[in-house]
C-alpha cells in the first residue's frame, strides 16, 4: 500500500515516541563517546542544542535540524579532552532539489597510547585505543514548521588488537514558530545494536532521549535554550532523570560576534568528588564570523576538580 507523502513526518514522530517507550538505556553500555559534546557552539551552550537551527553540526544532536540550513554548509572541529584524549569532527549538509536535505558526518576520539604488559607484568610495548562513528542523514520539512530527520550510523571501537562494531539510528523532530521565535525539539539518539563484540560480550548502546526548546527574546539580543537529556536512563527513580537539565544562552553582540554561556546540571551532579565542585558543569564560548562565509567557534568547559576541556571548530558556507 502506498503512503501519501503528507503522512511521512507524522510516521517519523510516531516511531520516535514508540521507540522511546520500548527502549531503555542501561548502565552496561559501550560507545559512550557518543554522549560527548563535539561542536564548539554546543559545548559552550552546555550541550543544550537539539533545538538549534541553521548549523550543519545539528546532525550530531538532532537530524531534523538539517532541514533548517539556509545553504550548503561544512564544518570541521577539534576537541581537546583530558590527559592525551583528543577528538574531532567533520560534517557536511545540503539541500538536493525538492528531495530534501542530505548530510554526512564523522566523529572520532583517540585515547592516546598505553604501556602493554604480559601476564608476568613484563612490558611488551604499547597499544592505542580509538573510536569512530560515521553518520548519513536525511531531513525535510512539512508545511514550513514541522521538521523531521533521521540518521543511519556506523560505529567502530578499537582497543589494541580487539575491536567492536555497531549500527544505530538517530531520529528527530522540531517544530518552529517563526512569529514568536519558539523552537520545540525532540530527538532519540543511538538506537541500535552491535554487529561484533569485544570477546563475544554483548553490550547496549548509549540510548539517549532528549527534549528541548529555545526562545529568541524580543527586546534583548539573546536566545535562551533548555534541554533534558538521558530521559531513557532507568538506573534511578523516574524523577531523577530530570536532573539532566542543561541551560544555554547565546548573546548576539553583533552580526559577526556571538557570546555563549551554559550550565549542565547533570554533569555537575556526576562530577561531585568532594565538598568543593568549583565551576563543574559551567561552560562559555565565543563565535566570530568573517569573510561572510566563515565562522570560528571556541568553547571552554569546566569539569570542576577533574579539569577543563577546550573545543574549536570552523564552519564555512559552500556556494
Task: Record the SSE blueprint.
Elements: H1 8-22, H2 40-44, E1 73-80, E2 86-96, E3 100-117, E4 123-142, E5 146-159, E6 162-177, E7 182-196, E8 208-216, E9 222-228, E10 245-252, E11 257-264, H3 265-270, E12 282-290, E13 294-302, E14 308-317
Antiparallel strand pairs: 1-2, 1-14, 2-3, 3-4, 4-5, 5-6, 6-7, 7-8, 8-9, 9-10, 10-11, 11-12, 12-13, 13-14
Tell me what the structure shows:
By secondary structure, the protein is mainly β. It has a single domain (40-317), classed as Porin. 8% of the residues lie in helices and 51% in strands. The protein contains three helices and 14 strands. It has helices at 8-22, 40-44, 265-270; strands at 73-80, 86-96, 100-117, 123-142, 146-159, 162-177, 182-196, 208-216, 222-228, 245-252, 257-264, 282-290, 294-302, 308-317. The protein has a 14-stranded antiparallel beta barrel. Strand 13 and strand 14 (308-317) form a beta hairpin. The longest helix has 15 residues, at 8-22. The radius of gyration is 20 Å and the shape is globular. The termini are far apart. Residues 1-26 have low confidence and may be disordered.
CATH structural architecture: Beta Barrel
- Give the class-level CATH name: Mainly Beta
Percent helix range: under 10%
Which structural class do you get from the secondary structure elements?
Answer: mainly beta
Largest β sheet strand count, sense and barrel closure: 14 strands, antiparallel, barrel
Amino acid at each position: 500500500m502506498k503512503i501519501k507523502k503528507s503522512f511521512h513526518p507524522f510516521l517519523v514522530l510516531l516511531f520516535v515516541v514508540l521507540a522511546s517507550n520500548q527502549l531503555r538505556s542501561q548502565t552496561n553500555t559501550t560507545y559512550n563517546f557518543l554522549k560527548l559534546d563535539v561542536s564548539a557552539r554546543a559545548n559552550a551552550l552546555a550541550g543544550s542544542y537539539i533545538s538549534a537551527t541553521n548549523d550543519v553540526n545539528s546532525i550530531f544532536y538532532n537530524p531534523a535540524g538539517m532541514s533548517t540550513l539556509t545553504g550548503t554548509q561544512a564544518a570541521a572541529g577539534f576537541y581537546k579532552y583530558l590527559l592525551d584524549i583528543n577528538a574531532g569532527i567533520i560534517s557536511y549538509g545540503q539541500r538536493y532539489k525538492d528531495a530534501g536535505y542530505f548530510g554526512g558526518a564523522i566523529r572520532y576520539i583517540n585515547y592516546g597510547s598505553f604501556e602493554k604488559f604480559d601476564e608476568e607484568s613484563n612490558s611488551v610495548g604499547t597499544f592505542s585505543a580509538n573510536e569512530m562513528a560515521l553518520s548519513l542523514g536525511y531531513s525535510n520539512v512539512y508545511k514550513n514548521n514541522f521538521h523531521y530527520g533521521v540518521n543511519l550510523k556506523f560505529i567502530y571501537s578499537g582497543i589494541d588488537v580487539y575491536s567492536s562494531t555497531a549500527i544505530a539510528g538517530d531520529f528527530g523532530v522540531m517544530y518552529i514558530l517563526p512569529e514568536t521565535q519558539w523552537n520545540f525539539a525532540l530527538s532519540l539518539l543511538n538506537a541500535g545494536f552491535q554487529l561484533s563484540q569485544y570477546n563475544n560480550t554483548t553490550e547496549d548502546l548509549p540510548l539517549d532521549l532528549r527534549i528541548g526548546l529555545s526562545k529568541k527574546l524580543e527586546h534583548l539580543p539573546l536566545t535562551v535554550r533548555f534541554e533534558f537529556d538521558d530521559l531513557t536512563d532507568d538506573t534511578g527513580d523516574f524523577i531523577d532523570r530530570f536532573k539532566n537539565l542543561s541551560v544555554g544562552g547565546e548573546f548576539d553582540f553583533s552580526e559577526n560576534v556571538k557570546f555563549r554561556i551554559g550550565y549542565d546540571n547533570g554533569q555537575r551532579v556526576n562530577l561531585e568528588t568532594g565538598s568543593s565542585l568549583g565551576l563543574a558543569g559551567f561552560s562559555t564560548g565565543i563565535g566570530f564570523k568573517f569573510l561572510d562565509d566563515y565562522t570560528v567557534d571556541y568553547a571552554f568547559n569546566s569539569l570542576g576538580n577533574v579539569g577543563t576541556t577546550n573545543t574549536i571548530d570552523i564552519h564555512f558556507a559552500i556556494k
